[in-house]
Write a structure and sequence with these properties.
Order of helices and strands of chain A: HHHHHHEHHEHH
Helix content of chain A: 55-70%
Distance between the termini of chain A: 32 Å
Number of helices of chain A: 10
Strand order of the largest sheet of chain A: 1-2
Oligomer: heteropentamer
Strand order of the largest sheet of chain D: 1-2
Number of domains of chain D: 3
Structural class of chain D: mainly alpha
Largest sheet of chain D: 2 strands, antiparallel
Largest sheet of chain A: 2 strands, antiparallel
Chains: A mainly alpha, B mainly alpha, C mainly alpha, D mainly alpha, E mainly alpha
Shape of chain A: globular
Radius of gyration of chain A: 24 Å
Strand content of chain A: under 5%
Helix content of chain D: over 70%
Strand content of chain D: under 5%
Number of strands of chain D: 4
Shape of chain D: elongated
Number of strands of chain A: 2
Number of domains of chain A: 2
Chain lengths: 253, 101, 96, 1065, 498
């Protein structure tokens, strides 16, 4: 079922599955969906016992926004693993230092360096002067309100990535990711989380259990670190994909 | 009460479409889109269970958030792999190598 | 229990049907570019559904990551995939 | 971990650890590797020694390691495991010495010796396994460790062999695993208990057990090479020699057989298996394998392949032993485990030696190899004879117990199988021996550089194992011999107390008294073998008979019992054996003196003297020994060494005569084996009819009875004169002694055998007379006269069988007749030797002719000669059976006819050119014999105390009329013979030719390249029509010949007469 | 007393150590330092696992650790019982040996990316074995899947990348199906915790649908026959230590989850037909895997197909476990399958390491060109042979014990046809291993072209793994009574399981 994988659009047309198989497949899947929806309709929804319990314990969690409480307090282990997932993808894409990108001009000594790209987007550079501060402001706001209103690390991180992407697309700036500072920024989220877990274990004897009084502050700090690293990782995803050299580095025979 | 039932049904339909798309389409990007649609469907079922009239259950929200991040991570990894293969340049159609059934 | 036939319900039914249609269209699209664009629209539509389902955090995240970043990634990847690969001969690097 | 439960695991580790360490030793560190290996061997043997005396003193050794919740790895040393452990330990020691010698200079030896020790560790594990699971684990480990050994050489053939070996053993292993698991679920724990685990458990569904048994049997059958599963064994011959030696003699094949024993005895329990009827399946498969393997072996030209097929058949003896569910058969099966191991490993060592030093692989290339590698070939001969089952060597002991065990449960078909397989063994081993020793080698081999024929490491093991095989045979009933061990096991298996051994004579007299009689010639024979004392002992060889003569004449009647020898052999000197010993001693003495002159400048004198002495020892032993095993051993020793003498001259004709002689000897051997086995198992109850008839025919072959006499007229004349003198004079009498000892003469009436004997006897007498008369060569004539005289004696014994009350007088008469005939015939043969001088007309002529006439006259039985006295006493002892007297006199007519013809032929002998001085020893010997004949006529009653009625007038007349008629007949026929065209070749010869053809077609099958079984069947199909057609042609020729008509007339006349006269009461 | 206070802490530590190791190996610059630290962490991980196992075997009670102190339904718990302790022990030991092997297997360039991914994969593995929350399992599966894909793509060749892409797509689809199953469960029972689910779950259509969805997702990841197309390419083109860990542990982790869901969590929803269906698929997998292995031209491909076959063996557990009709899960079969996992993991890892050596020495691993291997790489051949012994299930290896227990339970439950399939599988395995061995022993060849001088040190690790595979055949007592340690079911309202 996954045997055929086409990369270039031109070839994808002739390799379509034959009509017959498509119909058969459609038939099977529609039966499955009808079955599933029937099961859904028939069986009653469970009482929101868990929801009530979560909302009761919200006070203890140190934040008002129930989603952030669940994310960073009740089920903080999930979020920890979540950031680890992001880190995996970041690591796979990190190119070792000596394999030089072919943007010769870019200065590879600094994380964010300005290069004199020949073609610069006039409109985009103009827009940037407005967009970047706005983006940063917005992500800071989202981070801060996360505790009380919908918002939080992931959303703030996403907005920050948007800013970064705009910068990269504009063409004047170039990110190099193999420096220590870059690698540190990528891992700061996970490091903060693990440090918090260990710290809590010392403080309250149970891993990932916040001391009640400082919960809010610790959560905020961790969210900050998480936002930075999420933003960095997502930005890296984007730049690495776009920055892949166009010439084919055919593997040594 | 019927709102969430309606949305869970759409979620299921989305899953169906996503599954069909992921299997039927051959181009890597269309496959990834289909998989993302399927993810959206699942999230829709999750979130439709979250709404109980007045109380909204935060657990599914956290789950869906994590789900979205995982989805983006998976998709970007696949794209990166696809590009690396593309850059190796040879024949772009996936030729089934001889002894690999 | 009487189903309150209210405006919201109709709005929701419309929303649901349009999402399903849009999803169908994205996959039925012939070329990849339209598929990506339609997917971005689908992302936005789904963000509205999340709002209807009172899941605000998810809506923001979906808008930023689901619609924004994934769409951008797919577009960039699509562009790189369609460019013919220049075997490392002597000519200059790609200008784009 | 006390010592008692750590010893088994220590034994296995002593093999395992050196193996593992050797893997890491570098190729070049030879000394370290050898030290490690031999060190491991020695420690293992020491530990086994400790184990043996531990178990012997009743201590229990068991190691228990937890393996699975309900089962653990158990190593338990009981008597049965001890048998196999000691065998493996010992043979591993010898094989590793052999391997070191065989492989030095080749590459990756560390790997070889590593796997070699692992393989032995697995075998030890199998031996010591306490329950079926441990057995299975080590069984599979054995497969794994033996595969790299089989593919050691790495060439295509060994790889193919490895692949096939793996295929067979893997499937076998899977079936075994399934069987064991199924059994485990049914029966819970599978500990090996003495009388079987399953017999105790109630409510076990029998047909489940049957299916499991078949599965286990197939699993084990692969390794035990039962027929359908034996395919891998011959192909695995591609492995190097030490591997095929260890694999086929000790490790793999025995593991399978051992497994079968374990399953039948310790898992199912022998009675339970028998009730389930499973022993029938096992027995059938084993029997078929035995026969099939032997037949295949005949057709293999490659030596190792032939040995492989012989292993296939031999191992099934063990299975057969287990299948015959009797205590004695069990012992047979178990000791065969050890004996076959010893013998087979010797054979493989020798095969390896031949391949290694002379690059000889094919049986057809073996001509004369005995001369080039005497030691190896002697070991090979001993082992081969052992495999055939000839007495002194170990093989006989196990076959004897198998036979006796079979009769105990009266499974007669087993006896038939044993006989057939021994015959087949002879068919494929004897040609090798014959080619090796008696044929001259046409290919020239690598000249022998070293003092010894090959590297000492290659020579020592086969010689040692051959010695062990012989020792296991000779000292069978000693304490530590495998036989007593297996009795211990069988007793445990059957839960009975140790049952009494058979013929253990109670009384005991002076130790080694009569032993010296037999030992003297053997000592001198050894002297001949050793180069320094060779010349001296050849000169002395004649006087080796003196002690026997001294004992026969002067010693008082005594008995000597040698408990350790064979099964406790008993030598007694009573009046019968005294007379025979007297005859034997004198004849050997005279023949010895005569040979001095006759063979003075013979090239093969040493070989002749060796066989001469062995034959002498055999005959002395034969006459004295009372117990079955002893008698049969000496009987075989005598007949085998006689072969050496018969083919001494080395002419083509001698070889053919030797071959026929050997064929009949082997057939006789088998019949006697079966008969004596029957006799021993029948114990003291009435002797069953088939036993006595087998005895009759078996000894009849030796005594040259009519239908089985073919070898005699061809073998005797071909031998040198002194030898044929003894052959005719004494060895033929062995048959008679046999009847004497074993037939129930004098105590019960055996009508039919007696009748048969009389008919055959007299028919033989008349027929031989006619046939002898037609001969051209005096020695053949004398052979025919022996047949006729033996016929008369046989008839006498027949009368003894029919009228037991006459036997006491009759035996005395027969003794006298034996003496008379012995000396007379010897004198006649001697005269043939010196006739050439007499014809030359030297001054001695008249004196020589007188000496020739004396034996002739005594043979004819003229009055005042020992002949007439013997015939008269015989007539009187029969007191009044008229027809017997008539026939006796008629036979006298025949003898006279023969004697006259003899004189005529003597005259025609060519004149010899050698100076008379060289003939002096021959003349002295003939004078002595003639002197004895004369004194015999007069002095015998004084010495032997037999009362003789004074020669009355009637007896005088009786003594005269038969020779007179004989003379008339001779003159009449003289003319008749001149007119018919000279007879090409005596027509009576023709029958052996048919046999000859049949034999050639079967045995020559091997010269054609027979690689696989299918062409064999087509070959037989092609041959049968040609053999049948030849027979028909021959018969047609015979019938038209006038002589034949005359003879058949006479025959039926004699028969009618005899039958008519038989007393009706 | 002191020890039982600290031991629960070991559980989170078990997940934390690999994460910390990953972080450190990202930040650290030089390769030598990175390798040194990794080995340190590997040893630490083995010690923790040992601590857990010893605690369990002495106190015979499972441990449950509530992260964040919130308790089961709301918070996430980490649990360890006999089965997971064993799996942790196995994976830590294997990881230690494989880390030693890969310390000098990778060039500097690759090792930058290898070590972090390696540790993240192990973090995922440990998280799966410790998880007690349905969604947590999803995230852990995701970590494991993505890092595995990344490690496979390290191979660098086009085949490696293509198989990595296909593996990624399969992984994503599998995870999503699993998530859908979890969503349905949450919708029906309102809780994500497995223990709570097991008490509440009963036989209604929704549970059955979710179970089948979860199973479908996990089957995709375990590569049972119809869904196995991605495994051979992925496992054979990945670098040696990666393919070893993939075959030995990653595939087994999803099987472990299947066992958890089918026997612990949603056992009321399981029915006879489902069980036998899995059994039949397993049987077909055995036969098909062996046949494909026989036909494979490359050594690593052969070993990968043999993994497909051996996975078939594992699925024989389902028809046999509840064969006796009663809902009682007979412990014998579970023990047998655990033994299979143990023996197969060690043997397969040893084989892949041997194949790795052969590949680095010859430059290719085309079986037909490997004549005379026994002369050039004796240690590799020894490893391959010994591991082969355990795969075929010949005594004295662990494989034999596993086969024995499985055969015994098959025959005692009267379903002998499974036993026949097992025996057939053993023989077929013997075929393809025999094929390789007979080529290796073939010595009449000229000198092979040396690609890279064989460092026999690296062969040593494969050899130790093979020896371990054989030695775990001995005193099985200790392993079997460790498996007895299970959670005592809180006897809640719905009938519960035992």
């Amino acid at each position: 079922m996954f045997r055929k994988l086409i990369l270039s659009e031109s070839l994808s047309s002739q390799n379509e599955m034959t009509l017959l198989t498509r119909c058969a497949l459609a038939l099977v899947i529609s039966i499955l969906t009808i079955g599933l929806s029937a099961a859904l309709i028939l069986s009653p929804k469970a009482e929101p016992v868990l929801a009530i319990e979560a909302l009761d314990k919200l006070a203890l969690s140190g934040v008002e926004n129930p989603v952030t409480a669940v994310l960073l307090n009740f089920r903080s282990y999930d979020t920890l693993l979540e950031i680890a997932v992001l880190l995996i993808v970041a690591v796979t894409m990190s190119t070792p230092s000596n394999k030089q990108m072919n943007q010769s001009a870019a200065d590879t000594s600094r994380w964010l360096s300005v290069n004199d790209a020949q073609f610069v987007h006039p409109i985009l550079t103009a827009l940037l002067r407005w967009l970047i501060p706005l983006g940063i402001l917005l992500s800071g706001y989202l981070l801060w309100t996360g505790a009380y209103l919908p918002g939080g690390a992931f959303q703030a991180g996403a907005v920050l990535t948007g800013v970064g992407v705009a910068l990269a697309v504009a063409g004047r700036h170039h990110f190099t990711w193999h420096l220590f500072i870059a690698r540190f920024v990528l891992t700061v989220g996970l490091i903060a989380f693990v440090a918090m877990a260990a710290g809590n274990a010392l403080a309250t004897g149970i891993v990932l259990q916040y001391p009640i009084e400082h919960a809010g502050l610790i959560i905020l700090l961790v969210e900050l670190a998480a936002t930075i690293s999420i933003a960095a990782i997502l930005l890296m995803l984007f730049t690495q994909i776009t920055a892949l050299p166009n010439t084919s580095e055919r593997l040594k025979p | 009460m019927t709102h969430d039932l309606l949305f869970s049904i759409t979620g299921v339909v989305l899953i169906g479409i996503g599954l069909f798309g992921s299997v039927a389409s051959t181009h890597i990007i269309k496959k990834l889109i289909a998989i993302n649609i399927m993810g959206l469907g699942i999230f829709m079922i999750f979130l439709s269970t979250a709404r109980h009239g007045m109380i909204t259950d935060p657990i599914p929200h956290a789950v869906v958030l994590t789900g979205i991040v995982v989805a983006i991570a998976g998709t970007s990894l696949c794209l990166w792999l696809a590009l690396k293969i593309h850059l190796l340049g040879e024949d772009t159609t996936e030729e089934v190598n001889a002894n690999d059934v | 229990m009487v189903i309150i036939v209210s405006i919201e319900l109709w709005m929701d039914v419309l929303l649901a049907v349009s999402t399903v249609l849009l999803a169908g269209l994205t996959l039925a699209a012939r070329n990849v570019f339209t598929a990506i664009v339609l997917y971005v629209c689908l992302g936005l539509l789904v963000t509205i559904i999340w709002v209807r389902l009172n899941a605000w955090d998810v809506a923001i995240a979906e808008a930023a990551i689901g619609a924004g970043l994934t769409g951008a990634l797919l577009l960039m990847a699509w562009r790189r995939l369609n460019h013919p690969v220049i075997v490392p001969s002597k000519d200059a690097k790609d200008v784009s | 971990m006390t010592f008692s439960n750590s010893l088994p695991i220590l034994i296995i580790l002593s093999a395992l650890l050196p193996g593992l360490v050797t893997f890491f030793i570098h190729e070049r560190q030879v000394i370290l590797r050898r030290a490690l290996n031999l060190g491991g061997n020695v420690t293992c043997l020491v530990l086994i020694g400790l184990l043996i005396n531990g178990v012997y003193s009743g201590e229990v050794f068991e190691t228990r390691l937890p393996l699975l919740p309900a089962m653990d790895l158990v190593l338990h040393a009981d008597a049965l495991s001890l048998l196999f452990v000691s065998l493996s330990g010992l043979l591993w020691f010898l094989t590793s010495i052999y391997a070191i010698g065989y492989l030095d200079g080749t590459q990756n030896r560390s790997r070889f010796f590593g796997f070699f020790s692992l393989c032995v560790a697995a075998t030890l594990g199998i031996a010591l396994a306490g329950n079926l699971i441990t057995f299975l684990i080590f069984y599979e480990l054995l497969t794994l460790t033996t595969y790299p050994l089989v593919v050691h050489k790495g060439n295509a053939a060994s790889l193919r062999a490895g692949r096939i070996y793996l295929a067979y053993t893997m499937i076998g292993g899977a079936l075994l695993l399934a069987g064991v698991v199924w059994l485990k679920t049914l029966a819970g724990s599978l500990e090996f208990t003495a009388t079987g685990v399953l017999s105790g458990l109630p409510h076990l569904d029998p047909d489940h057990l049957k299916i499991i048994f078949v599965m286990l049997l197939t699993g084990l059958g692969v390794k035990a090479a039962l027929v359908p599963l034996h395919g891998w064994l011959p192909i695995a011959m591609a492995a190097p020699a030490p591997v095929s030696a260890l694999l086929h003699a000790v490790a793999v094949v025995k593991a399978g057989a051992f497994g079968i024993i374990r399953v039948v005895y310790d898992v199912y329990g022998i009675e339970f298996t028998r009730d389930l009827g499973l022993t029938v399946i096992l027995g059938a498969v084993a029997a078929f394998t035995i026969v099939y393997g032997s037949i295949l072996a005949i057709y293999q030209d490659d030596l190792k392949k032939r040995l492989a097929y012989s292993t296939v058949s031999q191992v099934s003896y063990i299975a057969l032993g287990t299948a015959i569910a009797g205590p004695i058969a069990t012992i047979g099966g178990m000791i065969h485990l050890v004996h076959q191991g010893l013998m087979k490993i010797t054979l493989f060592f020798c095969a390896g030696n031949l391949a290694e030093t002379l690059k000889v692989h094919k049986v057809s290339e073996l001509n004369g190899v005995g001369r080039r590698m005497p030691l190896t070939m002697t070991a090979f001969t001993i082992a081969a004879l052992g495999m055939i089952g000839l007495p002194p060597i170990a093989g006989f002991v196990s076959k004897w117990y198998l036979g006796a065990g079979a009769l105990e449960v009266d499974a007669y078909w087993v006896l038939v199988i044993l006989a057939i397989s021994s015959l087949l063994n002879a068919l494929y081993f004897l040609p090798i021996l014959h080619a090796a020793w008696f044929k001259t080698s046409d290919t020239k081999w690598a000249v022998q550089k070293t003092k010894l024929e090959t590297h000492w490491m290659l020579l020592l093991p086969p010689v040692l194992t051959a010695a062990l095989a012989v020792a296991a045979g000779i000292f069978a009933s000693s304490a530590i011999s495998p036989l007593s061990w297996s009795e211990l096991i069988a007793a445990r298996e059957y839960g009975q107390s140790i049952f009494p051994n058979d013929p253990s004579a109670a009384f005991l007299s002076s130790p080694w008294g009569l032993g010296w009689v037999v030992l003297a010639p053997l000592v001198v024979a050894v002297g001949v073998l050793i180069p320094l004392t060779r010349q001296w002992s050849i000169r002395l060889s004649a006087f080796a008979a003196l002690p026997a003569l001294f004992v026969a004449l002067l010693a008082s009647p005594t008995t000597t019992v040698l408990p350790t020898l064979f099964f406790g052999s008993v030598l007694t000197l009573d009046d019968v054996s005294r007379v025979i010993l007297l005859l034997a001693a004198t004849l050997w003495l005279l023949a010895g003196i005569y040979a001095k002159g006759y063979l003075a400048n013979d090239a093969h004198l040493t070989r002749y003297t060796l066989f001469f002495l062995l034959c002498m020892a055999g005959s002395f032993g034969l006459s004295l020994s009372q117990d079955l095993f002893g008698f049969l051993t000496f009987f075989t020793l005598m007949s085998l060494s006689a072969y050496g003498v018969v083919v001494h001259t080395g002419t083509e004709e001698a070889f053919r005569a030797g071959k026929t002689y050997m064929q009949w000897v082997v057939i006789g051997e088998l019949l006697l084996f079966a008969a004596l086995a029957g006799l021993s198992s029948a114990g003291n109850s009435v002797q069953p009819l088939w036993v006595s008839s087998l005895l009759l025919i078996g000894f009849g072959i030796k005594a040259g009875l009519l239908s089985t006499h073919f070898w005699l007229p061809r073998a005797h004349p071909v031998a040198p004169v002194p030898a044929s003198a003894v052959l005719s004079g004494l060895m033929v009498k062995a048959g008679l002694i046999g009847w004497w000892r074993f037939l129930p003469l004098g105590d019960e009436v055996l009508l039919q055998p007696g009748m048969l004997l009389i008919i055959l006897g007299f028919a033989g007498a008349f027929w031989a007379a006619i046939a002898g008369w037609m001969q051209r060569d005096p020695k053949t004539l004398l052979a025919y006269s022996t047949i006729s005289q033996m016929g008369v004696m046989a008839a006498g014994v027949g009368i003894g069988l029919m009228y037991p009350h006459l036997w006491s007088a009759l035996s005395a008469a027969l003794l006298l007749y034996v003496l008379h005939h012995g000396f007379a015939k010897a004198a006649l043969f001697f005269s043939v030797g010196i006739a050439p001088i007499a014809n030359r007309g030297s001054h001695l002529k008249w004196w020589l002719w007188f000496m020739f006439l004396v034996p002739v006259i005594t043979m004819i039985g003229l009055p005042f000669t020992s002949g007439s006295i013997a015939k008269a006493t015989l007539k009187i002892s029969v007191d009044g059976i008229a027809w017997f007297e008539w026939l006796l006199s008629l036979s006298a007519v025949g003898t006279t006819l023969l004697m006259l013809r003899f004189i005529e032929l003597l005259k025609q002998l060519p004149v010899s050119s050698r100076p008379t001085s060289q003939f002096t020893p021959q003349i002295i010997a003939t004078c002595l014999t003639v002197l004895i004949i004369l004194t015999l006529g007069l002095g015998v009653p004084v010495m032997t105390g037999i009362q003789i009625i004074a020669p009355t007038s009637i007896s005088m007349f009786d003594a005269i009329w038969p020779p007179f008629i004989g003379l008339l007949l001779f003159i009449g026929l003289y003319h008749f013979r001149l007119r018919i065209h000279p007879v090409r070749k005596p027509m009576i010869q023709s029958k052996p030719e048919i046999l000859e053809n049949a034999w050639k077609t079967i045995s020559d099958g091997r010269t054609s390249k027979l690689s696989f079984e299918v062409p064999l069947i087509s070959r037989i199909k092609r041959n049968i029509p040609s053999a049948v057609e030849a027979i028909i042609v021959r018969i047609s020729q015979i019938s038209i010949h006038p002589g034949v008509v005359l003879v058949s007339l006479l025959l039926c006349f004699a028969l009618m007469f005899a039958v008519g006269q038989a007393p009706i009461e | 007393m002191m020890s039982d206070l600290l031991t629960p802490l070991l559980l989170p530590l078990m997940v934390a150590t690999p994460l910390i190791a990953a972080l450190v190996s990202i930040l650290v610059g030089s390769k030598r330092l990175r390798v040194g630290i990794s080995l340190l962490f590997a040893i630490l991980q083995v010690l923790i696992a040992l601590g857990l196992v010893l605690f369990l075997s002495t106190y015979q009670s499972a441990i449950r650790y509530e992260l964040g102190g919130w308790g089961a339904p709301l918070g996430i718990d980490l649990t360890v019982d006999g089965l997971s302790a064993l799996m942790l022990m196995l994976s830590s030991v294997l990881v230690l040996v494989l880390s030693l092997y890969s310390s000098q297997y990778f060039s500097h360039q690759d090792s930058v990316r290898f070590w972090p991914l390696w540790w993240l994969l192990i973090a995922g593995l440990n998280a799966v074995f410790l998880a007690a929350d349905a969604f947590n399992i999803f995230v852990a599966l995701e970590i494991m899947g993505l890092s595995a894909v990344a490690l496979v793509s390290l191979g660098g060749s086009r085949a490696a990348l293509m198989s990595a892409l296909r593996y990624a797509l399969v992984g994503l689809l599998g995870s999503l199906l699993y998530l859908l199953g979890v969503a349905l469960l949450y919708r029906a029972y309102g809780t994500l915790d497995l223990l709570m689910l097991s008490t509440v779950a009963d036989h209604n259509p929704l549970t059955w649908v979710s179970l089948s969805l979860i199973s479908l997702g996990l089957l995709l990841k375990t590569a049972l026959l119809p869904l196995h197309f991605w495994l051979p390419a992925a496992h054979s083109s990945a670098p040696a230590p990666v393919s070893a860990v993939l075959s030995a542990l990653v595939v087994k982790a999803s099987f472990y989850l299947l066992m958890r869901f089918w026997f612990d969590v949603l056992s009321p929803a399981t029915n006879e037909i489902g069980m036998t269906a899995l059994g039949v698929l397993g049987a077909v997998a055995i036969i098909w895997g062996c046949v494909a292995a026989l036909r494979a031209q490359r050594l690593k491909l052969l070993i990968a197909y043999s993994t497909v076959a051996q996975i078939g063996y594992l699925f024989l557990l389902f028809p046999l476990a509840t064969a006796s009709g009663s809902s009682m899960i007979n412990a014998g079969t579970i023990a047998a399958v655990v033994y299979f996992i143990l023996a197969h993991a060690l043997a397969k890892a040893a084989m892949f390491l041997a194949a790795g050596d052969i590949q680095s020495y010859y430059g290719h691993d085309n079986i037909n060109k490997l004549k005379g291997l026994v002369l050039t790489l004796p240690m590799a051949v020894a490893t391959f042979a010994i591991a082969g012994v355990s795969l075929i299930g010949l005594p004295p290896s662990g494989g034999f014990i596993a086969k024995w227990l499985l055969l015994e339970s098959a025959i005692s439950s009267g379903k002998w046809w499974w036993a026949v399939i097992m025996l057939m599988g053993g023989l077929l395995a013997a075929l393809y291993i025999g094929k390789v061995l007979s080529i290796a022993f073939n010595q009449d060849i000229d000198r092979p072209t040396v690609h890279r001088p064989a460092q026999n040190r690296s062969a040593f690790y494969g050899f130790t793994l093979a020896i371990l595979a054989v030695f775990c055949g001995f005193n099985t007592e200790w392993v079997l009574n460790l498996l007895e340690v299970q959670f005592e079911r809180p006897l809640m309202t719905s009938g519960g399981v035992q």
